[in-house]
Every structure is written in structure tokens, then in C-alpha cells.
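Entries read chain and fold; for instance:
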Amino acid sequence: MDRVLIVIGFIVFWIAMIGLIFWGWRGRQKRQAESIGSFPEVPADLGETLIEASTGLYVGSTIAPSWQDRIAVGDIGHRATAELSRHTEGILLTRTGESTIWIPQKSVRAIRTERGLAGKVMSKDGLLVIRWVLPTGTEIDTGFRADDKLVYPEWVDPDTHTNDTKETTA
């Protein structure tokens, strides 16, 4: 009988913890909704392809400069396999099973490599992080872990692309 009560107590505790996680996530969504607003729509013409699509994992997006303040609005907080490509008009992040993220070229502030983002910690320079500005004026960092890390220098090299506002820090 004691074991049954312990098991029931553990199950109730586990359900309560899961409920608190969902409650916290929904609270975060409500707090961020106004500052995040809506994401830019993918234009009909992406322009010339500057960097071919790379496969990998969309790690998440955070409110800059905090690497752990994950965005919870919509499905932006969901990790997903993805393809990242760069075009003259901006950066396209196509996520499997989730919405596509379009980063207009004029919104890009910096492209760099980092060790971690949104609770995902890697080895040194394991993530490609794009800092950009939403239409609401909020700066966010979007993280991508490529299957082939050899593409990172092409993204962070200042001589590769014409973007006067881009910073590069490794």
C-alpha cells in the first residue's frame, strides 16, 4: 500500500510540474506578444542566391542580447530541422513542420558564431547566430546549427557579402 501511495504521489507531482511548465510558457507568450509582434512575410522575389541552402537545426530565437531569453510567441520557440540560405533580399530559414522565417537584408545587424543560444550549448563556434531587428524594433538573435560547420566562414566573412550594417565577431 505504501508503494502505491508513493507512485500516485510521484505521478501527481510529475503532472503538476508539467502543468507549471505550460503555465510559464503561456505567461512568457503573453509578456512577449507586444514587443515581438508579427514576423516579416516571405517576399515573392527573394533575389539572387548568395549562399546556397545549408541543412541543420533551427535552435531558436532569443531577445537580444540575452542568449537564454527564448521567444515563445507563435511557433518561433520550437526547434526544428531547417534549411538556411542567403539571398540579395534577405535570409530564408525554412523549417520542417513549422513556419518559415524571413529575415530582410535591411534588418540584419550581425552574423556571428557562438557557443550557445536558447538553452542549446555547443562547442566553441558551434552555432551560427543572426542578430536582426523585427518590424516592432525589437532586436533578436536567431540560432542555426548547420550539419556542416564549414559553411560558417562564408556567413561571417565581411568580404563575402555587401551589408554595410553587418558586424562580424567570432
Q: What stands out?
A: The beta strands are 49-63, 80-87, 90-95, 101-104, 108-114, 116-117, 120-121, 127-133, 139-146. The helical segments are 2-36, 152-156. The CA atoms of residues 6 and 12 lie 10 Å apart. The radius of gyration is 19 Å.
